Amino acid sequence: MSGENRTLRLWKRARKLRLSTTQIIALTFAGIILLGTVLLSLPISSRNGGSCGILPALFTATSATCVTGLVLFDTWSQWSGFGQTIILLLIEIGGLGFMSAASLVIFLFRRKVGLKQRMVMAQAMSLNDMHGVVQLQRIVIFGSLSIQLLGAAVLCLHFLPDYGFRQAAIWGVFHAVSAFCNAGFDIFGSVAPGQSVIAFNDDPVVLITLMVLITVGGLGFFVWEELARVRSFKKFSVYTKLVLIATAAIITIGTGLILLLEWNNPDTLGGMPVWQKILNGFFQTVTLRTAGFASLDQGLLTDGAKAASMVVMLIGGSSGSTAGGLKTVTFVVLVLFIWTKARGKSSVHLFHRTIPDNKATDAMTIFFIMVSLAFFGGFFIAATSSVPFVDGLYEAVSALATVGLTTGATTVMGAPAQLLVILFMYFGRVGVLTISLGFLMGNKAEDRFRYADTNLLIG
Predict the structure, then answer these.
(1) Fewer CB within 10 Å: C terminus or N terminus of the chain?
(2) pTM to 2 decimal places
(3) Do residues 124 and 25 touch, judged by C-beta distance below 8 A?
(4) What are phi and psi of 354, to 5 degrees?
(5) How far apart are CA 230 and CA 437, in angstroms?
(6) What are the sequence ranges of the domains in the chain?
(7) Which spans in 221-262 are helix H?
């Protein structure tokens, strides 16, 4: 019995649950955001001792929980140590998934993991099968914490000589968590307020460490487990092979485009030595895959580079990871399906396997929804704020793909546009997952009959 059929069978056994697992995921994320909003709106959360207001608190809590990184204020300048801690906790919970935190409690107290918990774990990690989900969850929790601690140690040791132990430790932990969870929040405001990591765009240790954390976090929990268990590319599943190949290809092609389009731009790469141009070209592409750290001023990019950046943002990371976006394998399936049909072939074949047409249909559905929402968001932001359409579209794509990069539109948007971005960030993190699960768990009743075919002129 296939993994999908097994999951459907178990779902029918558990359908008497009061709430579906997708509803549990969506409502729990909403609850976390609301709790974060309340905490961030408290005077103790702000550096100046006054409340920031409900809308800014809601915007920040949503951005942190949905690991996006769009902010109305510089994180260090606006938020106190308490506020920054709340943001960090929201990032960790949002990045690893609330079920990871719940599972950690279960593991610590050695409680039995029941069917309902297994189903929520599997769906929270975008898995079709519950087999081995508990073991995978252990890898997710302890592997994630280990990688973040290692990244924090590297950054701490690097910052230590210039900034002292306390500052280095705080910076190391915060940015390791933010990078691994693909959140893009930074607290470098004491050095350069509102400049993200631009102040360190000539520092290979900082940029490379962040890139490694971003990439590992964006590969996906399933890929981690298989890399640790199999350790042979030939024996990897088709999914893992696609993730690794797609990730390498997107980073390579994206870097090439950024370097080509920005090489002589005096406002970005133009004034840098060759090694720094290449380093920042790589960093720009890696961070576009839903991380949100900026080593270049996004508002000063050429229009061509902005367009290329939006494509990379829409693709995003991999399923079951801390990243958002359309997802790498979804994009690959979409491209392969279109290429196959354009050549007049009926089936998509890859690694001696056939990709079902329904997978391509699902990919096209998600792609259409994401692109349609992005253009609607771009028009809405431009119409309700003093923001050019290209910058509004960049903002909308960044929110939907939970990236967090901005050309500067975030801080000048009006309240209607801010509310739309909040909805986009939530949809990008929770809505896309819910739609994807709908493809798996949807009612198959409509397949029991079909209407007569009709002929249409296409093309």
Answers:
(1) C
(2) 0.84
(3) yes
(4) -105, 130
(5) 27
(6) 17-441
(7) 221-229, 238-262
Task: Look up tokens 């009612």; give the residue.
Answer: 443
Picking from 398, 412, 337, the residue whose alpha carbon sits closest to that of residue 182 is 398
Q: What is the dihedral of CA 283, 428, 323, 256, to 10 degrees?
A: -30
DSSP assignments along 3-66, one per residue: HHHHHHHHHHHTTTSSS-HHHHHHHHHHHHHHHHHHHHTSGGGBTTSS---HHHHHHHHHHHHT
| Those residues with Cβ within 8 angstroms of residue 156's Cβ, 6 or more apart along the chain or in another chain | 165, 168, 169, 171, 172, 173
Question: Dihedral sign, CA of 158, 164, 165, 167?
Answer: negative
Cβ–Cβ < 8 Å for 64, 185? yes
Long-range contacts of residues 30-35, Cβ cutoff 8 Å, at least 24 apart: 30/426, 30/430, 32/65, 32/90, 32/93, 32/94, 32/98, 33/58, 33/61, 33/62, 33/65, 33/66, 33/90, 33/426, 34/61, 35/61
Residue 183 has pLDDT above 60, yes or no: yes
SS3 (DSSP) at 114: coil
Separation of alpha carbons 307 and 66, rounded Å: 24
> Other CB atoms closer than 10 Å to residue 211's CB: what's the count?
20
Residue linked to tokens 């690794």:
244
Helical pair 204-219 and 133-180, crossing angle rounded to 10 deg: 150
pLDDT tens digits for range 20-75:
666 777 788 889 999 999 999 999 999 999 999 999 999 999 999 998 999 999 99
* Cβ proximity of 66 and 94 under 8 Å: yes
- Buried b / exposed e across 81-106, counting CB within 10 Å, b at 16+? eebbebbbbbbbbbbbbbbbebbbeb
With CA atoms as reference, report the closest residue to 328 among 396, 394, 251, 256: 251
